[in-house]
Amino acid sequence: MTEQRAESPRPGRRRSEESRLAILTAAFQLLGEVGYAALTIEGIATRSGTGKQTIYRWWPGKADVLLDALATKADLYVPVPDTGSHPADLRAFLRASMALGRRPEVAAGLRALMAEAQVDPAFGERFRASFLQPRREALGTLLDRARLRGELPPGLSVGTAIDLVFGVVWYRLLATGQEFDDRLVEELLGVLTRDGA
After folding, report:
1. Which top CATH class is 62-192?
2. Cα–Cα–Cα angle for 69, 71, 73, nearest 5°?
3. pLDDT-derived band of residue 197, with 50, 70 and 90 as boundaries?
4. CA-CA distances (angstroms) from residue 66 to 44, 57, 58, 134, 145?
5. Which of 156, 139, 137 is nearest to 147 (CA)?
6. CA–CA dist 98, 107 (Å, integer)
7. pTM of the model
């Protein structure tokens, strides 16, 4: 009979969720304190109590750390409810999205990541796959349910409805600086619901 030896994991190789969250929290805090341009892997490592090597083993650079931090926040703070009412579900999703987007460090992070995505094609692909697409899918889930129940306005496709919401959000975030407020939520509901909510 051959004795099988249990392989113990190499120290420092497995990504611990506790370390990951400490790094993401540190990146987010530092973004709010020093801005994206002054954000460094060294600063994140110091604030989180981890080594630079650990961060570089898990992420290619500061943009990817911040991308993970913002994607995690969006997953935590923006619900995908199913109350049986399209206007109620959409209102909850939009209000949570707008509340998160009003946070100065979130807005600054999103602007920085969108800029980075324009100059670094590889990062742009990761940004679309890890942040933009999951946000589109979350909203698409709500809108697809509404479409199946006949609650979307006639002639409005789910894809166009998603583009309308995120087009307005990104335009305000990147171009005009206009508020994400309850009025915007209600105006979008008026466009995206069959009876104008």
Report:
1. mainly alpha
2. 70
3. low
4. 10, 15, 12, 16, 32
5. 156
6. 10
7. 0.86
